[in-house]
């Protein structure tokens, strides 16, 4: 009782020392930024490019006076908006840059800069439902693999969709035979295809899925690609056909911005066709001068501006080099583990390597992500090679894994 009273007293004294509305406690902020910058050096388990490099952008932003202005990209960026303080012109240029890289023609493409990959997936599923409803007057069944990102399942739940979770093979791809068995031909099908699953980095077999749809055509089909990470680098690699709408016939794609491209906050983009857009519920909003096709009203004006800045700063050749480098480094890392006999796996065209889970100390030192799969011996971890990870850092992780394995094999002390 006495101890509880003392703890309450201490917490009252501590909270009283923070004065809202007073000076900003810079010591605290500086300690916080140091902690984050220290972490930056050895985080290897998450698909975030830490080479953000937006110093010049922010210098311009402050010098221009825009730091003291609130802009907002509410509305359809392709139509003039009632709210004029926006960055729609830059948002459109970002979408115009990316659309042809995924095989959309300039005439058919429509898109937005999103707040994240999840936001793009949310639009993909929502637009897909409305498109299929307009075509068939029926709500679709949502098909997605067990290895797909959890956001798809959550979005299905949020949009109250019947969800068919298709089992995946051991390397993480949707099992096409099981998809065929689950497919209901008397209902429209909304299929979310993983272009790089979160943990194993598997790209679903679009040709195989297509063959099933030809053999057993459902009432109508909408294909959305979740290309959160791989969708960023594949168009700049020699494997770009995987993500080419002219060959793969998808209806929309979502990609994260902060993963491959490197931003200081989550963002992304969503691209679909004008035909899909035309079949959406218009929800006309007179005070905004037009229909608002996006799910949210207010949208960041700053992210499209930063994206545009990044596209000015980097050439196609730069992005191609970055894509080649992360894939070469993933090959290098996997080879190091193979040489040592450390159990590890990697899908083709993937910058993700997954392996037997090491000790907790190694997990924490490199901030590795974890998963479990009894088919691969149980506990697993993965690392994702991003642009900020050097060969030395990759070798350092490989050495730690090898040392861990050696400890495991050492005879127990008597
Ligand atoms: C395959 C996949 N889809 C979607 C997401 C979610 O993307 P975001 O974090 O940009 O919302 C992730 C995140 O890691 C992912 O790996």
Furnish the topology, listing elements before pairings:
Layout: H1 2-16, H2 26-40, H3 55-64, H4 88-98, E1 109-114, H5 117-136, E2 141-145, H6 150-158, E3 162-166, H7 176-182, E4 189-194, H8 206-215, E5 221-226, H9 230-233, H10 245-248, E6 252-256, E7 268-273, H11 274-278, E8 284-285, E9 290-291, H12 302-313, H13 316-340, E10 344-345, E11 352-356, H14 360-365, E12 369-373, E13 378-384, H15 391-409
Parallel strand pairs: 2-3, 2-4, 4-5, 5-6
Antiparallel strand pairs: 1-7, 6-7, 8-9, 10-11, 11-13, 12-13
Helix pairs in contact: 4-12, 5-6, 7-8, 13-15
Bound molecules: pyridoxal-5'-phosphate (PLP).
Pyridoxal-5'-phosphate (PLP) binds at residues 47, 116-118, 149, 151, 194, 196-198, 226, 228-229, 256, 266, 268.
Give an overview in words:
The chain has 15 helices and 13 strands. It starts with a helix and ends in a 5-residue tail after the last helix. With 414 residues, the protein is α/β, with parallel strands linked by helices. The chain has a seven-stranded mixed β-sheet, with helices on both faces. The protein has helices at residues 2-16, 26-40, 55-64, 88-98, 117-136, 150-158, 176-182, 206-215, 230-233, 245-248, 274-278, 302-313, 316-340, 360-365, 391-409, and strands spanning 109-114, 141-145, 162-166, 189-194, 221-226, 252-256, 268-273, 284-285, 290-291, 344-345, 352-356, 369-373, 378-384. Bound molecules: pyridoxal-5'-phosphate (PLP). Residues 47, 116-118, 149, 151, 194, 196-198, 226, 228-229, 256, 266, 268 line the site of pyridoxal-5'-phosphate.
